[in-house]
Amino acid sequence: MRFIHCADLHLDSKMTSNLSREQAKERKMEILRTYSRMIDYAKENKIDGIIIAGDLFDTRNISATARNMVKDSIMSNPQIEFYYLKGNHDSDNFFSKLDDIPENLHLFNEEWKTYDCGSISLSGIEIDSTNESTLYNSLVLDNDKYNIVIMHGQIGQINLNAMKNKGIDYLALGHVHEYQNGPIDNRGIYCYSGCLEGRGFDECGAKGFVVLDIDEQKLTAGFSFIPFAYRNLYTIYVDVTGAMTTQDAAAKIEDELAKNPYSSRSLVKIVLVGEVDVDCEINTDFLKDMFEEYFYYEKVYDETKLLINYSDYEKDVSLKGEFIRMVLQSDMSEEKKSEVIRCGIMALSGEEI
């Protein structure tokens, strides 16, 4: 049998950080379409079941569009079993709008619930304050089956040590938004599928879901991560050491982007790093305008450090020298000194701060 393990879809997320109003609306619809494309993938690849390990929705106020898309995807695919465990963002609002729970939609609650599919069993529990201290002792599995266990939470909240020697083969987790996996014991592994689409620059890199392919006779399985996001987010660090002008920095950005040809659909944060001279002029607004046509969304941050030799300004009688000496002799942190000097030099040079 073949299963998709997904989590943290966050359908109906507002997507208002960073993006314009039009882009936020577009991204909201794209996340819904990615969910729909995943269902198409399941049909085309003869997936038997889809495990949603929490945070299907992003808010309790679910739009009719999102609610109907999910309902229709379940009801129009009776050949696929859906296993939905609520996460910390989910509520019962979705179910309250359903006249009947479809036969192929299997739910979980605050006590362990198990669904059997021949030699495969799927067990899940929704963690809350009433069960987090007792849930490990109450988990009882059949060692002669391939056991999938479904939970939502980060490791720490989920005690992996307490899951050892329970007969778990695959622990399908949600809550962490990047793909991760590792051993539980000699028998089983845990896996975070990550989210389907990144929503902010804390969710960079490939996003998608996991396909679990189980041999029902041997009770063994292979699994693979399927990158599936329509758009990916990247943070790109560009070392601009030695640059003296905005044009110098732009050339270094061009060189860095050439090493990894990012899709024009990407959302990109360019972070300038390295050491630059105190007289270096880098205009991040100009750089943002220069590269914004390269990507769907792009922004530029300057995190360079000023290379300041105190002896160069010891006897400098200029206003700039006096200002730099005053800042260097202050009790501010080195990071703050660098920031104040950068702003001061810009002001003295007639630049906007």
Distinctive features:
single chain; 353 residues; alpha/beta; Purple Acid Phosphatase, chain A, domain 2; six-stranded mixed beta sheet; 8 helices; 25% strand; elongated
Descriptive account of the structure:
The chain folds into three domains: 2-227, Purple Acid Phosphatase, chain A, domain 2 (4-Layer Sandwich), CATH 3.60.21; 232-307, no CATH class; 310-353, no CATH class. The chain is α/β, with parallel strands linked by helices. It is 26% helix and 25% strand. The chain has helices at residues 21-44, 64-75, 93-96, 160-163, 246-259, 284-291, 319-328, 334-348; strands at residues 2-6, 49-52, 81-84, 105-107, 113-117, 120-124, 146-152, 170-174, 180-183, 189-192, 208-215, 220-227, 233-239, 267-273, 275-277, 297-302, 305-307. The chain contains eight helices and 17 strands. It is elongated, with a radius of gyration of 26 Å. α7 (319-328) packs antiparallel against α8 (334-348). Strands 4-3-2-1-11-12 form a six-stranded mixed beta sheet, with no helix packed on it. Strands 5-6-7-8-10-9 form a six-stranded mixed beta sheet, with no helix packed on it.
How would you concisely characterize the structure shown here?
The chain has 353 residues and is an alpha/beta fold. It is built from eight helices and 17 strands.
